[in-house]
Amino acid sequence: MHDIIVVGAGPAGSSCARQLAKRGIKTLLLERDSFPGEKNVCGGLLTSADLKELRPDARIVQRYLDGFIVHSPLHNKITAKFGKVGASVNRNQLDSWLAELAVSAGAELRVNTTAESIEIGNSGVVVKTTSGEERGDAVVVASGATSHLSRSLFGDIFPKQDMAMCFQIDYKLKEDEGEDAKYFHAYYSKSIGYGLGWLTPKKNVGTLGIGVPIMQGNAVKAIFKNFIGEYEPVLREVIDMDKPVKREAAVVPLSTVPKKVFRERALGIGDSANLVNPFSGDGVYYATLSGRIAADVLSNRDYSEEALSQYQERINAECKEAFDCCYAFQKSTFSDLATTEYMLTHDHESTRTFLRDWIWDKTMTKPTLSEKAGMMAGYAKAKLMSRLTGISV
Ligand SMILES: Cc1cc2nc3c(=O)[nH]c(=O)nc-3n(C[C@H](O)[C@H](O)[C@H](O)COP(=O)(O)OP(=O)(O)OC[C@H]3O[C@@H](n4cnc5c(N)ncnc54)[C@H](O)[C@@H]3O)c2cc1C
User: I need a surface site. Which of 53, 236, 298, 379 has the fewest CB within 10 A?
Assistant: First the structure.
């Protein structure tokens, strides 16, 4: 019998298990793969907020990064150098390291164990797994966005229209790498349309990917091919496209904060709670943050629905405003590339501010309501100007 069972040893589950174990709570961490991070797909970008939250061991950092380069739909480059470092990582290393921290704090990690169902009773929870039943006082669902467990406990918190299908390839970095290899790259692209491309430079490879609405999921590889055709000369400045190393595909939820990811004896965290920045797709930070908040709330050992509602309140306070704004930014900039072109090329400062405050530094500088209103007003102005100047993309 354990106090808390955490399902899934990704960044969310391991962070939560670590914080619970540190408080002396008997914690069982279940992972279906043979080691944490074995199959977890990710661009591998950690922003400065991630670095502050995670403090990753230098041995697992692939490369420290200086900021973003955003490529406009017409391939203008907007460099946002922040002077604070971000980093790139490989998820098999990051997730294994986070799980090791949880184990060192006293959590029990059980790999090769898939949770199949969760029953919530009056006196505890029962998690049925591929190797038997586990009992605890409460359960934390951290099994990612595609797991049925979250839906079975919290309902359908993943609006289909906000799910993205991603496809990415690791290419060898160019041998004579230049300045651009120090930056994370984001690409608006005519070939992608509604969606975004990215390139994360690592030690020897660059992870090049795209995300498109899940309704276009079947076409994602064809869209990727068109995207690299469109951007080939620019991409060849950083990666050697004749040397692909690894191909991966996965789904990511890009919505606003869901209304309810708690119930008596159960919380959802990370992707299982739909907590991914809906503009940038970065979710490692929100996974670890929500894991930490969940552990704080659970450590009171009051597992009633009322007590656990504090978790939702704290998630809303930390994430909702930024998510709402980033969601609006996704909807507007992805669907209107002409306005996006105008905005990126005429209003560098607001782009840099948005990237720094809302994506890169999340915890350090919280956007205020007036900044949010200002950004939307800026977008509306750009929309008007792009119409007047007749920019076409
Ligand atoms: C292509 C792509 C690129 C991305 N790039 C970035 C990026 O550059 N930076 C960033 O911050 N975020 C990125 N994200 C988002 C990020 O990967 C996720 O938000 C993050 O991994 C969420 O962590 P998590 O712990 O909630 O879930 P996951 O990382 O999905 O971990 C869930 C864990 O649960 C395990 N599991 C699943 N089901 C079960 C079960 N039934 N029983 C037991 N174990 C189970 C899985 O094996 C896995 O280890 C990207 C996502 C995608 C798809």
Answer: 236
Residue 252 beta carbon below 6 angstroms from any ligand 1 atom: yes
CA distance 47 to 147: 26
If one residue of 96, 214, 271, 319 were mutated to test the ligand 1 pocket, choosing by the most ligand atoms within 8 A of its CB, it would be 271
Using CA atoms, how far residue 155 sits from 42, 143, 261, 288, in Å, is 26, 15, 9, 23
The reply to whether ligand 1 has any atom less than 6 angstroms from the CB of 144 is: yes
How far apart CA 244 and CA 262 sit, in angstroms, is: 42
Name the fold adopted by 62-89+160-253.
Answer: D-Amino Acid Oxidase; Chain A, domain 2 (3.30.9)
Measured CA to CA, the distance from residue 352 to residue 79 in angstroms comes to 8
Confidence tier at 380 by pLDDT (50, 70, 90): confident
Inter-residue contact 180 to 238 (CB < 8 Å): yes
Which CATH topology does 2-41+91-159+258-319 take? FAD/NAD(P)-binding domain (3.50.50)
Atom of ligand 1 nearest to the CA of 276: 19
Query: Does 370 have pLDDT greater than 80?
Result: no
Flag whether pLDDT at 45 surpasses 80.
Answer: yes
User: Domain coordinates of the chain in residue numbers?
Assistant: 2-41+91-159+258-319, 62-89+160-253, 323-389
- Spacing, Cα 380 to ligand 1 middle (Å): 35
Structure tokens at 30: 């279940």
Query: Which residues have CB under 8 Å from 335's CB, separation 6+?
Result: 194
Instruction: State in Å: Cα 32 to ligand 1 middle.
Output: 13
- Residue pair 158/151 in contact (Cβ under 8 Å)? The answer is yes
Entry pTM: 0.96
CA angle 22, 24, 25 (to 5 degrees): 105
